[in-house]
Amino acid sequence: MRRIQFIEFHDQPWFPSSIRDDITDALQFGLSFLKAYAPIAPLLHGPLDSASSRSIVDMCSGGGGPWLYLSRKLGGAAQAIHVCLTDKYPNLRAFQNFSGASENRITFCPDPVDAMNVPGELTGFRTMFTSFHHFSPKQARAILQNAVDDGQNIGIFEMTRRAPLTLGLMFPWALMPLFFTPWIRPFRWSRLLRTYVIPIVPFVFLFDGIVSCLRTYRPEELREMVEKLTENGYRWQIGEQSGTAAEMPITYLIGCAPARP
Questions:
Q1: Right CATH number for 9-256 from 3.40.50.150, 3.30.40.10, 2.60.40.1820, 3.30.450.40?
Q2: I need a labelling partner for 25 at 20 to 30 A (CA). Which of 90, 153, 195, 261 fits?
Q3: pTM of the full predicted structure?
Q4: What letter would DSSP give residue 172?
């Protein structure tokens, strides 16, 4: 199945920010409920241990990403990690909720952050979850090259795949907001309106979910991308990871800077 570069509604600049926040909140709730990225926790120990600090800069965070449960799995009192959430279109209310729920282990940048040109003051292991596919090959290489140029470790993780099974799962996935929307916090009547009366959220879930699958990079495409980078001694791990037979495989790309003398 050939990769298709097409648009997702919720990442377009013209998409209303209030509806975008409803979408990212719903995505966040669903992925957190499923703990979809729990299987990749073992992959994160190496990049964190090899870095000079246990700081993480999460890019394209949407409604917050998987860090509320991953940070508990990875950090204890003796080796706590600090996560900074960033996005080109920050969902500030979601970020504030995350920060409070994590007892400030998770903070956020309130200003827009371009994953292709991360500000120099945001240092740490860069991560992206279910967002790398939004970028064209040229843009995706620019994200990786920017991390390499800044000497930062980077991890890309995608639960979507260009596969018939994953495409088929987007249909029940689009129905999930009909069941869990009343429990999403903060509660908003507008969210109920856009889910049940005018079903914008389920429609965008389905459309963007299918498009996400169709433009997700496969491991071999990620390897070709890495080969075109101008880099100096980075170690790259690329493959698919799953915890059990019941869990969806997660495509990953991890780049670690060479150890400093």
A1: 3.40.50.150
A2: 153
A3: 0.92
A4: H
